[in-house]
Automatic annotation (TrEMBL):
One of its GO terms (cellular component) is plasma membrane. Keywords: Cell membrane, Glycoprotein, Membrane, Sugar transport, Transmembrane, Transmembrane helix, Transport. It comes from the Eukaryota. It holds the Pfam family Sugar_tr. It comes from Asbolus verrucosus. GO terms for molecular function: fructose transmembrane transporter activity. It is found in: Cell membrane. It is a multi-pass membrane protein. The chain crosses the membrane at residues 5-22, 58-78, 90-110, 116-138, 150-168, 180-200. Residues 9-283 form the Major facilitator superfamily (MFS) profile domain. GO terms for biological process: fructose import across plasma membrane. This is Glucose transporter type 1.
Length: 283
């Protein structure tokens, strides 16, 4: 069942997805303030006025470079998870989160919009890694009967992050010429909070058992998460999963695309992802 320590571990991990939601939406509200800042910096440097179109172009870079970093982080998620572990990868990833948030916070002090671009890129890599590491960690620590339900916590955290960013970004709070660097810099809070909460959580039992072959460590982690000594069923389930993985033949991307038997599930997966993105929810 849903024990206290399992709930705690999920809360600590899901802060990474709150970070993702916050940074996805936070740049939208202070658009005009950021463009004015860019115009001021440009005039101070070159003694010329920056046109509205050029300012909008620079602002667009600040928005879109986050997605570029996210793509890079997303591709690297599996490698990081296997090398450092799910929990270890999340802890290391917070270094990127804190660095990116501090860079964005210091943009106005440094009087440089390039610092904003760099900070957004770094925080994008952080969020891309979170989108791989957080669902992986949660699904691997959750018992089988709760795995589907607990998987939805990720999306809930994303939407909470989006909501927070939009509320804090209104003009009456931090959506001002002086407040927007702090608004962006508040992304440091989820990273710092996760650094405090996550260390006492166990590593993923599946990672310990299957990847590292540390059976006793996996048992200890399961006992803490399940608040019970009866963990043999979980161990056997992971063993069965390992055997099934080893029995599966690996195929290339071209073989996946050309396989008649896999074509229907492939099309379903692609259409579902396109439907989510083209629905406009992120916009």
């Amino acid at each position: 069942g849903l024990t206290f320590f399992l709930s705690y571990a999920i809360l600590a991990a899901v802060l990474g997805m709150l970070q993702f939601g916050y940074n996805t939406g936070v740049i939208n509200a202070p658009e005009q303030n950021i463009e004015h800042f860019m115009k001021d910096v440009y005039k101070a440097r070159y003694g010329e006025d920056l046109s509205d179109d050029s300012a909008r172009g620079l602002y667009s870079i600040a928005v879109s470079i986050f997605a570029l970093g996210g793509m890079l982080g997303g591709f690297g998620g599996g490698t990081v998870a296997n090398k450092f572990g799910r929990k270890g990868g999340l802890l290391l990833n917070n270094v990127l989160g804190i660095t990116g948030a501090c860079l964005m916070w210091c943009t106005k002090i440094a009087n440089s919009y390039e610092i904003l671009f760099f900070g957004r890129f770094i925080i994008g890599v952080n969020c891309g890694l979170n989108t791989s590491l957080v669902p992986m960690y949660i699904s691997e620590i959750a018992p089988l009967n709760l795995r589907g339900g607990l998987g939805t916590v990720n999306q809930l955290a994303v939407t909470v992050g989006l909501l927070l960013s939009q509320v804090l970004g209104i003009e009456q709070i931090l959506g001002t010429n002086d407040g927007w660097p702090l608004l962006l810099g508040l992304a440091v809070c989820p990273a710092l909070l996760q650094l405090v909460l996550l260390p006492i959580c166990p590593e993923s039992p599946r990672y310990l058992l299957i990847t590292k072959q540390w059976e006793e460590e996996a048992r200890k982690a399961l006992r803490r998460l399940r608040a019970s000594n009866q963990v043999e069923e979980d161990i056997e389930e992971m063993r069965a999963e390992e055997r099934a993985q080893q029995a599966e033949a690996s195929i290339s991307t071209m073989e996946l695309i050309c396989s008649p038997t896999l074509r229907t599930p492939l099309i379903i997966g692609v259409v579902m992802q396109l439907s989510q993105q083209l629905s406009g929810i992120n916009a």
